[in-house]
Amino acid sequence: MDRKIARRDEWLDARKTLLDEEKAFQAARDRLAERRRELPLVLLEKDYLFAGENGNVSLSDLFGKYGQLIVYHFMFDPDWDEGCKSCSFISDGFDGVMPHLAARDVALAVVSRAPLENLLAYRSRMGWEFPWVSSLENDFNKDFNVSFAAEDLASGKGTYNYREGGAVIPEMPGLSVFLKGEAGRIYHSYSTYARGLDPLIPTYQMLDLVPKGRDEQDLPFTMQWVRRHDEYED
How far is it, in rounded angstroms, from Cα 167 to Cα 26? Predict the structure, then answer.
């Protein structure tokens, strides 16, 4: 261990200095959240029909009785036997927050391109209950830049995280937010990708508090250590 060992009064001085930085960061984050809410809205002109466990559902149906909708774009290619482990890492926290989101007029749904039966089987394995629908038969994933054709990847023209060429594999993760307005019109208000999904991961937020942090600096890539929660060994 190469960290300094301090007296309690020295630690307290250092902690108060860090507290000032934390307060400044929180204020900046609050301002950023306000700017996010001020983004203009885009009216959706296309209807999307998804395969759901109780039959086909529209994007409007995913709102339920709520006026706002968060969609998590879960990486699950139609040819895969199981969902992405990193998306699973994120999705482990969804069930617990859904009642709290509902209290603030927000619905949450997960969308993937894999066939519905694959999604539901994997959801059962993971012990999740959140709504999960298949976009295999529509352009939703393509339109929101999370699924990419082989020719787009080969040409380097697949746009991901608002950058052409950012797509490197056929399925990429993301989150999109929608608002239902008058006469049932649906508006797209926000999407985020890549490291923009970091705040959704409670494990990372907790690891950032401990002495070793995320402890990923010597790994081949971040999240290399992550397993599906039923794959960890004691």
Answer: 31
**Strand, coil or helix: what is 80?**
coil
φ and ψ of 45, to 5 deg: -95, -15
Burial 168-179 (b: 16+ CB within 10 A, else e): eebbbbbbbbbe
CA–CA separation, 6 and 14 (whole Å): 10
**Phi-psi region at 66: left, alpha or beta (left = phi > 0; alpha = psi -120 to 50):** beta
Torsion, Cα 85 138 120 199, to 10 degrees, reads 40
Q: Is 180 helix (H, G, I), strand (E, B) or coil?
A: strand
DSSP per residue, the chain:
--SPP--HHHHHHHHHHHHHHHHHHHHHHHHHHHHHHTSPPEE--S--EEEEBTEEEEHHHHTTT-SEEEEEE----TT-SS--HHHHHHHTTHHHHHHHHHTTTEEEEEEESS-HHHHHHHHHHHT--S-EEE-TTSSHHHHTTSB--HHHHHHT--EETTEET---SSB--EEEEEEE-GGG-EEEEEEEEGGGGGGG-HHHHHHTTSTTTT--TTSSSTTTT---TTT---
pTM for the model? 0.95
pLDDT in tens, 15-42: 999 999 999 999 999 999 999 999 999 9
Q: Which residues pair with 62 in a beta bridge?
A: none
Mean pLDDT of the chain: 96
| pLDDT tens, residue by residue, 200-213 | 999 999 999 999 99
Q: Which residue has the tokens 């070793």?
A: 212
